Amino acid sequence: MMDIDHETLVALAKSWGLFYLIALSIGVLVYTFWPGNRKRFARAKLIVLDKEDRPWR
Amino acid sequence: MIAGLTATERQIGLVLAGLVTLMGAALGIAGRNDVLGYQGLLIVVFGALVMIALLRNLDAPEPDESRLAEYYDDPIRFGIVLTMLWAIFGMFVGLWVAALLAWPELTFDAAWASFGRLRPAHTTGVIFGFGGNALIATSLHVVQRTSRARLPDQVSPWFVLLGYNLFCLLAVTGYFAGITQSKEYAEPEWYADLWLVIVWVAYFALYIRTLARRKEPHIYVANWYYMAFILVVAVLHIVNNLAVPVSFGSAKAYSAFSGVQDAMTQWWYGHNAVAFFLTAGFLGMMYYYLPKRAERPIYSYRLSIISFWGITFMYMWAGSHHLHYTALPHWVQTLGMTFSVVLLVPSWASAANALLTLNGAWHKVRDDATLRFMMVAAVFYGLSTFEGSFLAIRAVNSLSHYTDWTVGHVHAGALGWVAMITFGALYTLTPAMWKRARMYSNTLVEVHFWCAVIGTLIYVFAMWNSGIIQGLMWRTYNDSGTLTYSFIESLVAMHPYYIARTLGGLFFLAGAAVGTYNIFMTIRHEPLPLSRRAEALGTDRPLVPGE
Are B367 and B438 in contact (CB under 8 A)? Predict the structure, then answer.
């Protein structure tokens, strides 16, 4: 089995770990501010306040 | 409750309870020469009680079809009661442990009442018993309402709720008997851990199946937090508890990890238990019950999404800050420290989102103790996440680690954030679940609120003082380069703070007891007459019967 030494792990964390988190942050921001999602978020905010207490069928 | 189950569901329940009883019997027989035998016996008794309850109602008439037009709330009601019972138990043991530290003779020379056994009984009682039952009950409420869908069946919620409480009972009784695998917040041994895996997978499946039935196209953000809580706790629990039992007849198992890897796995688990059990789940609670109670939509829905992903992805890396100045590689410590500091951003985003939701409704906060519970929770959430990021910095940690400052920090989070948001949610949920206009007594909610706030403040200030004094005494050197204070001198200096802490705990427990009484009295009250229900629900039109 290949030996994963300390240096390898540090290199991985400092490169791919970093890229993965940056990519993820960009992805989340794009999703959050995507114009097409504006309507569904605006609606989602209000569903909590609905007084109706029955499942929809 | 059992009358609400169909005949088939009762039979399935009977088979499941029978299987659990058999499993318990097998465990008891295999472990008859070990303390494990008693744990098997406990499972048998638990399974048998469920079977008896089902058998007594096995031939009850079929429930009405109209139930399918309503949400399934029976397990939620049961969960609320269990939550309060665990609160009393867990907080009472906590008070005892606090008193034990001030007056060591309170262990009464009994092995089962020694600090090492009482302490996990306290942490498990409050975190898993009180917190866990509150999370299960509220999550089943929130997922149904925000999905506008009834739970998919009537057996699995009971399996999850009762199975989870069986786990908690096994854990706590095991500690008193001396069973522990010595991993903080993961003390139960292999058989209880395996059982929790089964229960937790059922919980995950139940949640996903309900979401799959949703009529709302978008999944409301509270569900994301609850899902993260369920999913990540499953992963953490399975990995951290990988162990090989000595034999099937022994309670003892040995961890798959050793040395620093074991420590890192444990604190990856331990910190994410704080992150996903005590934070993500309760944030889910906050994002539903706070807007609901304030009757105002959340200040920024987008911010709640950004903080969700921030919290879920950054918390995963923060655990190593528990292992500063250990054999853990320095860069792993630095990684944990860095992520802990950055975590402040999504944490404060959530706290700010909650407080800004209340901005413009401060008169409601002033008048309504229930909403005030949630407001104080958001404030303490902000405070304790700031403190957490600060304590994770290596240089600060060199002063705070091993001192009562850590204990104070944990309780600022546990009392100030977790318990306060839970009580706020329960006071919102209880009248709704039992169709009451309001709680039995609003005055008692006020009393509970002030007991909880005073108790938390006394506790946290006592531990801040004690922890910093302790840390300073342990690092004060004299002219000849040796320590100025002996350990026992620092212990004597702690005594007044330990007494103060016990007083703070007493206030908090008293508040919880008042809350429990209030909830039980709300349940016992007669249902509200139909004519007054419209006003109670806040609708301006009268409800017609059958609607």
Answer: no
